[in-house]
Specification:
It contains seven helices and seven strands. By secondary structure, the protein is an alpha+beta fold. Strands 1-2-3-5-4 form a five-stranded mixed beta barrel. Involved in DNA repair and RecF pathway recombination.
């Protein structure tokens, strides 16, 4: 049976000398894989459409085991992502997080839309770090994690000074700081952004201008939360952390050269 899927390429694996196994996240079927015969050849009609991050339509012939990709039509090649190392690194993390937290064949149109919009925003030039933070916060509910972001996770108060508690699974107010001596004393700007990213509609994303210090706080809080509750080891995230450390080294060097 021939099926038509709208999908985004998450990854490819070599299969023989000329073929690829293409893993996609599709609107209709969730995560699915198919063999793209001859796709490793540069002149193959499937070569371009099976590149990572590509959003397109795919015709797949079903059967026992893996289906076979017959045709592909790119809706967006995400060219600007692939031409920029930083954008590629953030996009790779987003698709690996999607891949590692989903099961084959589980339909999830909401997650498909979230993935598509996030890659579109990065491809169009939005701040890749912030788009990734939003994606991470939106993904929490998809993997069964629900931090308390509306009120204090301990006493339920909505007014006061707040921090973020990994132990208490969410916001913690100044009255309850003693419950977690290791809470993160984030700036109020970072806390507001965490709440915003968790609740707001990604479609409403406008121009983003976040200070580097705030980005660092957001990255620390989200990474610590994922480490504690999700238990994922993602190669793409480690690469991002290495890039961020290198950026810091270069920025410090530039500042010292200017003095």
């Amino acid at each position: 049976m021939l099926e038509k899927w709208e999908g985004i390429v998450l990854r490819t694996n070599d299969y023989g000398e000329t073929n690829k196994i293409v893993t996609m996240f599709t609107r209709e079927k969730g995560k699915k894989a198919a063999v793209a015969r001859g796709a490793k050849k540069t002149n193959s009609r499937l070569s371009g459409v099976t590149q990572p991050f590509t959003h397109g339509f795919f015709l797949v012939q079903g059967g026992r085991g893996l289906g076979t990709m017959q045709q592909g039509e790119a809706l967006s090649s995400m060219r600007h992502i692939r031409e920029d190392l930083t954008k590629t690194a953030y996009a790779a993390y987003i698709v690996e997080l999607t891949d590692r937290t989903t099961e084959d064949g589980e339909t999830n149109p909401y997650l498909f839309h979230l993935l598509q919009k996030s890659l579109d925003y990065i491809n169009e030039g939005a701040d890749a770090a912030i788009v990734t933070n939003i994606f991470e916060m939106k993904m929490l509910s998809q993997v069964g994690l629900r931090p308390e972001m509306s009120a204090c996770a301990v006493c339920g108060e909505t007014e006061g000074k707040f921090g973020f508690s990994i132990r208490e699974n969410g916001l913690i107010c100044h009255r309850c700081f003693e419950h977690d001596p290791h809470f993160l004393p984030l700036s109020q700007v970072s806390l507001r952004l965490l709440r915003l990213f968790y609740f707001f509609d990604l479609e409403r994303l406008g121009n983003i201008d976040v200070k580097e210090a705030t980005k660092k706080e957001l990255r620390a809080a989200i990474s610590m939360y994922y480490d504690e509750y999700a238990g994922l080891y993602l190669k793409s995230r480690r690469f991002l952390e290495q890039m961020e450390r290198m950026d810091h080294v270069f920025s410090v060097k530039e500042e010292s050269d200017d003095d």
